[in-house]
Each structure stands twice: as structure tokens, then as C-alpha cells.
């Protein structure tokens, strides 16, 4: 059990699990000084990944989403935004977090020669089709999975899950992250809210639920 840091509001601490996932994704992506990095999918995790990558000096980050209204979120987090049609190509690293096959296909298209693609989406038991001929082979692209359930191998001698969670909580001190909270409701309202929160086409980010005794 960990205490929420005194300088992190408890209501913002609900983002801790998403921040842990984002941290793991950034560790797997290994962003370097001055790189061009694209994150596809401006949900909570994708936005947090973009936010973290933008902290690396010289890194040029673009956050891509099919919903143009996510531009405001990107601006609040201090990162550039693009729709898929406007996204920049020849990227050093593309991190995919949209959960859609079309997003992964675009990730392969945006990566430059010897570029790396980090797949953070979870597709469950579904099958998806992606083009692994053409540019994937000719440009020697790398496709790597990132999953929060395991720490990157080279960090395991020094890191454990508690240390990662401690880091995640400490990073939530930034007030700009309030932009990821899209609403709050009483837990009793969940049956009515569920279609809006989880239905196809939902634009919700993190929606807090209040529990009362």
C-alpha cells in the first residue's frame, strides 16, 4: 500500500494506473534526444504517453487521433496534434494506442527507415490484418509489444511494481493532467451512464465515480 503524495490531489490520483501503463510504454519505446515521435490514439493512455515523451529534450511529439476535438486536449498537455490525414511521416518512433487496426496500419506507414513501432493496444482475441510486406520489410521496421503487466527486462534488476507505482503517483503532480478527467458521477448512476461511457463512439476520457457509504 502506498500513500498518495501530499502534492497530488486524491481526485487526480485515479489516473495512477493509466500513468503506469504510459510509463511502461515509454520505457519500451526508449525515446532519445531530438527524435520525432508520433503517438496514435488520444485516449487517456495515448495522451499520457505523448505528455511523457514531450518531457525528453528536443523530442518532437505529435499526437494523432481521428477526433479533431482532441486538439484541445493536446494543447493543454503541451503537445502538437494532428488528424490521421495530416500526420507527419518519416518518424523515428510511432507508438500505437488507439485500439484499432487502422491505427496500427497507419503506424507502419508513418515510421521512417529503421523506425520502431510500439504496440500498446489490446485487441483481445480478435484478429487484425496489417501489411507486413512492402515498407515493413524494405525499411526494416521493428514492431514491438508493450504490456503493463511486465516490466522491461533490462529494468527488472532495479525496478519492481511498487517503485513504478511510486513514480506514476509522483508524476501526477502536474495540474495540466486535469484535462484527462472528462467527468464525475455517483456510482449508483453507472447503469445509466454505461452506454455513454463504454459504448461505440464514446469520447469520454477518465470519468470518475464517487462511492458513498
UniProtKB/TrEMBL annotation:
The lineage of its organism: Bacteria, Pseudomonadati, Pseudomonadota, Gammaproteobacteria, Oceanospirillales. InterPro entries: 3-OHacyl-CoA_DH_NAD-bd, NAD(P)-bd_dom_sf. The keyword Membrane does not apply. It comes from the Bacteria. The keyword Repressor does not apply. This is 3-hydroxyacyl-CoA dehydrogenase NAD binding domain-containing protein. Pfam families: 3HCDH_N. Keywords: Metal-binding, Oxidoreductase, Zinc. It comes from Vreelandella olivaria. Transmembrane segments: none annotated. Residues 37-75 form the 3-hydroxyacyl-CoA dehydrogenase NAD binding domain. Its cofactor is Zn(2+). Belongs to the zinc-containing alcohol dehydrogenase family.
